Amino acid sequence: MTWPTLARGHKWRRFTGARLRQGRQAPIFTQALTYVPLLSSGSDKQGWSLEIKPKVGLLNINIAEVWRYRDLIMLFVRRDLVSAYKQTILGPLWFVLQPAFSTITFTIVFSRIAGISTSGVPPLLFYLSGTVVWNYFSSSLVKTSGSLVSNAGIFGKVYFPRLAVPVSGVISNLVTFGVQLGLFLLVYAYYMVTSPEVIKPNGLALLLLPLLLAMIALLGMGLGLIVSALTTRFRDLQFFLGFGVQLLMYATPIVYPLAIVPAELSPFVMLNPMTPLVELFRFATLGAGLFSWVLLLRSALVTVVILVIGIVAFNQVERTFMDTV
After folding, report:
1. 300 with 280: CB under 8 angstroms?
2. Entry pTM
3. CB 132 within 8 A of CB 177
4. What is the DSSP letter of 34?
5. 48-51 and 35-37 beta bridge pairing
6. What letter does residue 48 receive in the DSSP assignment?
7. Phi and psi of 44, rounded to 5°?
8. Is 57 within 8 Å of 47 (Cβ atoms)?
9. What residue spans define the domains of the chain?
10. Do 184 and 129 meet the contact criterion of CB atoms below 8 Å apart?
11. Which of 14, 95, 107, 282 keeps 20 to 30 A from 252, CA to CA?
């Protein structure tokens, strides 16, 4: 194979420590170069097939570039889904068994033993609704938080938009959410037939479910990007993340209705951006829960702020994290 001569008048930028001198024949390292020439032979006037530029701004997000790599994103999604339960006996059944076991445990402990009210909703359906929503948020957060450290080997070999990895994690978790939502709909249909008087879905609120799903995904991704950026320097966050997410779940009305929260603690629970989202899902599907436009808009604002901070931190760290991981 004949390597093309690097065109004169173009300066190569160093990304990962590799430096190529102007006018010298050398292999093309797509991650190390600012410009990648066409491999066809010809004069120095030939065009360029790809231009890779360093990020010059903290909010420099090239959405078009991420979209061009959509095939790679779907490959990452397939990798996540296949590798999640590879060499397991039950395989994809764990998508359903995890929320089912959690719901049964919550029903026994919090409803039967502790006697916590579920606002007139069947306990099994009440806890399953909260579990399905929370699992999507927590899995998106945990998956995104390991984007840089877990994929350092790939990042050091080939160039692609680094944001493709957290995006693929959110999409793969969306597939899991779809399977668990199917379980919820089966239980929901059972109670609609046996106890239709206790379930009162709200048609208008159901139209907000796509917005609800997008907010959950962006909130989990934003928090995950912040943790991912910090984890490159402070590995302690990897140990804190597990039980930190668990503690955050108990600060969210997953295993208890918001109506039973004492008045002095209610403002703190309302500060949790996941609280309005869980309540909206229950209000739309079960007719129980508190729905407020003010709380929903505040949660949307917090989600946008967290996402912006996460992208800024991610863009800042991705340029130099290979020196620290």
Report:
1. no
2. 0.79
3. yes
4. S
5. antiparallel
6. E
7. -70, -5
8. no
9. 1-54, 63-323
10. yes
11. 95
